[in-house]
Amino acid sequence: MEVVSPLISLLIALASMPAVAAKDTAIKWPVKSTEKIQWQDSYWWQKKWVPAKPTLETDRKALYGLLQIIQKTKFGKKLIRSVSKRYPKFYNRISIGQRSFTESTYLRTYSLKDGSEELEIKNHLTINRRLSRIDAVYDLTHELVHFLFRKPHNPYHMRFSMPEFVRHGIEGKGGELQAFEAECRIAWEIEKKAHVEPHQLCSKYGKKKHTHKFNQFNSRQAAKDFYAVGNYFVTLQGLQIELPALSNAHPTFISSLENSPYPYALIQEFVNVRKMACQNNARKARLIQQQAARARAGRDPSADASLLSEEYARLSKYFRWHCQTEIHK
Ligand SMILES: [Zn+2]
Predict the structure, then answer these.
(1) How many domains does the chain have?
(2) Which residue, of 169, 197, 295, 317, is most buried by count of CB atoms within 10 Å of its CB?
(3) What angle do the packed helices 162-171 and 219-226 form, to 10 degrees?
(4) Kind of pairing, strands 117-128 and 94-97?
(5) Does residue 310 sit within a domain?
(6) How many angstroms separate the alpha carbon of residue 178 from the centre of ligand 1?
């Protein structure tokens, strides 16, 4: 957390911080040579994608190896082209850690003169170092979709609601459904030319059209299955009016972050993010209230007391709606 007066910056992270940052600013894109892709060697695909005793150098090479494999597919080539177009140095925002996930960080900056604020969202992705090469390819594809497309809801927005957060996390742009579809499309392309076992989960959602190979994704079935929460249904059934797709069917999709079905995992995330937003809002409210008092007393002529009071009223409203506590407590 950083305080720069009169601008205040506050951070909220949507997931726990990644473990290791493999940074290199000297990389030229597109990536040229790394390890040669052994299409026909099933052992090569099953081997761990990073060496047992990694260094920053081997981590970086392994990562570029994965990107190179993804680039060799039609779908992956397009995906990487889009990512590198929008974020030319996106590889600096990839780490290797104990799990695969994409973290969104909100950086909020506000002025103590009038209470106005700006919010910037940054994504960072981490890939699990314990995976086989083929699974790492799937995970990286999946996380790149989150990285490129996901625009998390603004937690400071008055209409930041739990069902909307869950629905958006699953079905929204860059959500779980879209990331999973990307994973399957890459898997089906790789399966055509490499000695790999078919992607088990994806086989269930493949449709065949004019060919004996999968090339259509059954998005409707996958969306339905994302809401299958099994035993968690007892806890979540209160949300069924807003999320009618929730069912007690056996879960197919489990979030690796919370080790639970996605709707439940997203609710945990929502609760954490809201808690942070409430704390940050309380802090902002306190600061602007003091500032408004100073302005009214003529001690800070640059501050606008009436705009600060308006903002204080808005924050109080947010508290009443979302934080279930009075702002001054
Ligand atoms: Zn995901």
Answers:
(1) 1
(2) 169
(3) 140
(4) parallel
(5) yes
(6) 9
Distance between Cα 39 and ligand 1 center (Å): 27
Query: Residue 143 C-alpha to ligand 1 middle, in angstroms?
Result: 6
* Domain annotation covers residue 205: no
Ligand 1 centroid – CA 222 distance (Å)? 13
Report in angstroms the alpha-carbon separations of 92 from 27, 105, 126. Answer: 10, 15, 11
pTM, 2 dp: 0.86
Give the mean pLDDT of 125-129: 94
pLDDT at residue 246, rounded to an integer: 97
Domain span at residue 117? 2-198+214-323
Strands (E), 210-321: 214-217, 254-255, 260-261
Using the mean position of ligand 1's atoms as its centre, give its distance from the Cα of residue 233 in Å: 21
pLDDT tens digits, one per residue of 173-197: 999 999 999 999 999 999 999 999 9
The alpha carbon of 169 and the centre of ligand 1 are apart by a number of angstroms equal to 9
